[in-house]
Amino acid sequence: MTTNIATRKHVLMTIAVSVALAACALARNPDPKVGMKVFWDKGCIHCHPVLGEGGNIGPDLSRSPSTADGVELAAAMWSHAPQMWQRISQESLQLPTFQADEMEDLFAFLAMARSFDEPGNAAAGMQLFRAKRCVECHSIRGQGGKVGPDLATVASNRNPVAWVTAMWNHAPGMFRALAVKGVQFPRFERSEMVDLESYIRSAAGAGTKQQIYLRPAAAGQGAVLFRTKQCIRCHSIGAAEGGRLGPDLSRVALPRRFGEIAVVMWNHAPEMERLVAAQSIPYPKFEAQELADVLSYLNSLSLNRPGNPTAGAATFAAKGCTACHATTASGKGVGPNLTRLQQSLTPVSIARMMWNHGPAMLQRMEKSSIEWPAFNTKELADTLAYLASIQARSQPTSQLKISAEEP
Q1: pTM for the full model?
Q2: Facing residues of 140 across strands?
């Protein structure tokens, strides 16, 4: 009995710590619209196009996989920074610096830009509309079946989240209608959902006016909705809390483009309905804003990807970081003593520190014939975990704080 009580206390404490950390990480809601302005004002658009618009010196960041994942983006920025600084100098551009909020908003904008789909193939979508037997239930401007709604009513909605929401909410009604008709539930793959959407838009002759959210997607609100919609009953977030019927969503590489998200959610819907019915949980339905918030929350989990501090310590030494940075309270080095950092170490904060102070750091390294260290995603996650463990050991818990100030 004592052991069970102790175990429950440990679990409750772990959950409390996880919730506290999540609250800190999501205390500010980054604004992708402000991040787009940062992207322009800081001159990033001069070298990098987004959705095909901008310079052509660097890659299109709406097509780069790394921009959808916080750790991957920070690792890519770190590893390629010397080349970027050199090109900025060659182009006679001013090297920008970033405030903490600006970097957070920039990361949010790049993640949002990466989520939009490439234009679909309307001809392929027309074939899918017939092959998947959608035409037997749905009409477009009166042409087609009458079981389901006329799809012209949703074709004018240019917001991709609204399309995903409509597909998800529509699934349970389809289960019943298909069962009556004896038709198998249609499944999709790769870009098929985007092709289908493209065909429906073209067939409906929809306008191009884009629906705007009243507010940017909020990861903090998404975290609340993830629980109130009872997603947590089936899916865990980390080892501390949540169900085990579905995968741990903090450890799954989720699709980043909305068309891919729609495919995964749609194909998952029949099994989802079966499982929630067995658990007496109502099938969760969403407004477009709600789903945007939940997706923002799930995307934000990449900013807190767990690393291995032991592996991070080995990476830190192998990359030559110990040549400049002390990791003990009494140690000294050319760079800052890393036990005295006062801000939380996240992919965003480490990217900002690196970008703002990296040029001076690179100069010192070149004078000492030290090679600039490159990190892959795992190496950076492990190194951040190692640095966080240094902070935890060197400072009392009551003194640990999150600050926007530089170390």
Answers
A1: 0.70
A2: 143
pLDDT tens digits, one per residue of 311-363: 999 999 999 888 888 888 888 878 888 887 777 778 888 899 999 998 988 88
* Integer Cα distance of 127 and 188 in angstroms: 13
Name the residue with higher pLDDT: 13 or 62. Answer: 62
pLDDT classification of 68: cutoffs 50, 70, 90 = low
CA 47 to chain CA centroid, nearest Å: 23
Tokens 């004078």 belong to residue: 367
How far lies 63's CA from each of 23, 59, 112, 282, 394, in Å?
31, 8, 11, 37, 41
Query: What is the Rg, in whole angstroms, of the alpha carbon atoms belonging to the chain?
Result: 24
| Dihedral, 58, 59, 60, 61 alpha carbons, nearest 10 | -90
Summarize the confidence of residues 103-119 as an average pLDDT: 83
Tell me what the pLDDT averaged over the chain comes to: 79
Q: Which are the contacts of 90, defined by CB distance < 8 A and separation ≥ 6?
A: none
Kindly report each contact of residues 15-19 with a partner whose C-beta sits within 8 Å and lies 24 or more positions away, as own/partner.
15/240, 15/241, 17/240, 18/237, 18/238, 18/240, 18/241
As to burial, measured by CB atoms within 10 angstroms (0-12 exposed, 13-18 middle, 19+ buried), residue 119 is exposed
CB 386 within 8 A of CB 313: yes
Residue 388 and residue 346 in contact, taking contact as beta carbons nearer than 8 Å: no
Give residue 80's pLDDT. 92
12 pLDDT above the threshold of 50: no
- All structural domains of the chain with their residue ranges: 31-116+306-399, 118-300
Question: Over 70: is that where the pLDDT of 231 sits?
Answer: yes
